[in-house]
Structure formats: C-alpha cells, structure tokens
C-alpha cells in the first residue's frame, strides 16, 4: 500500500503529495474523491466501512494556489534535479556539495549546489574545483519551472501519477 497520494485540484492539476491517512480523511469528509486506487490493492478498514487505498485523489472544490516566482532550494530538490547522480564522478549521490565552498564566500543557492557522493564530497572538502583539477559534469542552476515544480522536487513520483504529471508539464 502506498504511503503517499497525489492530490489534484478540482481541475486535475497536481497540487500536493499527502499521506495516505490524510487522503482517507479528505475522502471521509467529502472534500476529495478517489481518482485512482493504489496498484497494490490495499484498503483501510473499520468495523463498518472499507475504503480502497488511494494513489491519486481530486479535491471536490477548486483551491487557488498562489504563484511562487522561484522554487525553494532544498537538499531533496537538489538530489532530484541532479537525478541522484554525483556531479563529479557520476556515481550515485547521497549528499549535496557547494561548488564554491561557503567558507570561501559561496552561497547556498541552486547555482552553487550539486549532488555528490560521499567520497567526492569528502575529497573536495572546502577546496575549489580548480585546486583539484576537477570539473562539473553538468552546470548547476534552478530547476525548470513547470506546473507542480515544487511537488516534483520533494517526492519521487509514483508510476501511477504519470498521466497527471505529464499533462501538467
């Protein structure tokens, strides 16, 4: 049973990712309806009620979402933007690194942070790339802003979400 559920606005635009418990509460209160059940076929049961585990839900009423000019930078967002690939060696990344170290005046921004494996992050430490003779495989920058951009950077999308996420891109 999936523990995360894609929540769509009344117009079928991706809005957020919520927990399965929150999704069931939205369904029980009549604020949302089931669009697609979880592939695993799980269910929530009580003494008198059985509810199919949701994978995608839609709000009953439209919710206006304020426009956010920039996507907030987070560790999870950097890892997602870089596909969890080390910017230095190409192996699986599990941490982030500042290209220009903060101790040398670097800022904590999309343009200065990249995904890195622990080995490369430790080897680089607080040195500049030129000092090591290293180069970046990809230049860092803010993620491409599409509808639901913040949503996609925070959680790994479930395969059943693809039709709604592709339509919003």
- For the record, give the distance between the C-alpha atoms at the N and C termini, rounded to a whole number: 27 Å
Topology pattern, helix = H, strand = E: EEHEEEEHEEHHHH
Low-confidence stretches: none
* Overall geometry: elongated
- The tally of structural domains comes to 2
Estimate what percentage of residues fall within beta strands. Answer: 15-25%
Helix content: 10-25%
Major sheet, described briefly?
4 strands, mixed
Task: Order the strands across the largest sheet as they lie in space.
Answer: 2-1-6-3
Query: What's the Cα radius of gyration?
Result: 20 Å
Given the helix and strand composition, which structural class is it?
Answer: alpha+beta
Query: How many DSSP H or I helices?
Result: 6
What is the strand tally?
Answer: 8
What is the averaged pLDDT score?
A: 87
In short:
The chain is of the alpha+beta class.
What can you see in these coordinates?
This protein is of the alpha+beta class and 169 residues long. The protein has 2 domains: 1-62, no CATH class; 75-132, Orthogonal Bundle (DNA Binding (I), subunit A). 24% of the residues lie in helices and 22% in strands. It has helices at residues 20-28, 75-81, 118-124, 129-132, 149-154, 162-168, and strands at 4-8, 14-19, 32-37, 43-45, 50-52, 54-59, 95-98, 113-116. A 4-stranded mixed sheet has the order 2-1-6-3. Strands 4-5 form a two-stranded antiparallel ribbon. The longest helix has 9 residues, at 20-28. The radius of gyration is 20 Å and the shape is elongated.
């Amino acid at each position: 049973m999936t523990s995360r559920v894609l929540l769509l606005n009344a117009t079928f635009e991706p809005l957020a990712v919520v927990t399965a418990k929150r999704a069931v509460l939205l369904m029980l209160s009549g604020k949302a309806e089931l669009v697609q059940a979880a592939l695993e076929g799980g269910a929530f049961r009580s003494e008198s009620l059985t509810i199919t585990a949701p994978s995608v839900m839609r709000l009953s009423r439209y919710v206006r979402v304020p426009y956010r000019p920039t996507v907030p930078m987070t560790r999870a967002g950097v890892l997602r933007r870089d596909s969890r690939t080390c910017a230095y060696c190409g192996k699986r990344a599990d941490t982030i690194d500042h290209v220009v170290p903060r101790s040398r005046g670097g800022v904590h921004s999309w343009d200065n942070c990249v995904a890195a494996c622990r080995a490369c992050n430790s080897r680089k430490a607080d040195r500049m790339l030129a000092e090591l003779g290293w180069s970046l495989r990809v230049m860092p920058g803010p993620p491409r802003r599409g509808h639901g951009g913040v949503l996609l950077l925070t959680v790994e999308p479930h395969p059943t979400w693809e039709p709604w996420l592709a339509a919003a891109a």
